[in-house]
Structure formats: C-alpha cells, structure tokens
Specification:
With 71 residues, the chain is an alpha+beta fold. The protein has a domain at 9-51. Helix content is 38%, strand content 11%. The protein is built from two helices and two strands. A two-stranded antiparallel sheet has the order 1-2. The longest helix has 14 residues, at 38-51. It is elongated, with a radius of gyration of 18 Å.
C-alpha cells in the first residue's frame, strides 16, 4: 500500500486477526485483500500502528556512547 493510504481501525483489527490466525487473506466490510507473505502483513501492520497512533516511532532508538580513555 502506498504512503498516501489512510488506514482505519477496522482494517487494522482485521489484519491483526488474520495474522494471528495464520491467514494471508483479510476481509473487512465487502473487501478482500490477499497478501504475498506474512512479512508483508507485519510491515503493513506496523505502518497502520504508526498512522493510527498506536505506536510512537518508526525505528529503533540509537544511543551514542563516548569514552575519554584509551581502548
């Protein structure tokens, strides 16, 4: 799905349930979507969580560390 897609909570719940059941086909309202892989489903689920405000950030946090001494 493209970045301009607006997701709904209903779509999110349908995808989450399908993923939990091990199904690659998701049905919501009168629409059916068949995904190519579970990795694709997880990626889109993550995008939905960010867009719907269920997840705060897109990536991992990186922390820098510094040392005054020698190796």
């Amino acid at each position: 799905m493209a970045d301009s897609t607006t997701y709904t909570l209903e779509q999110y719940q349908a995808l989450k349930c399908a993923l939990a059941e091990g199904a690659k086909v998701v049905r919501y309202q009168d629409k059916w979507i068949e995904y190519r892989s579970f990795d694709e489903m997880k990626k889109i689920l993550g995008e939905m969580e960010i867009e719907l405000g269920l997840k705060k950030t897109r990536g991992k946090r990186l922390f820098a560390s510094f040392s005054k001494g020698t190796c």
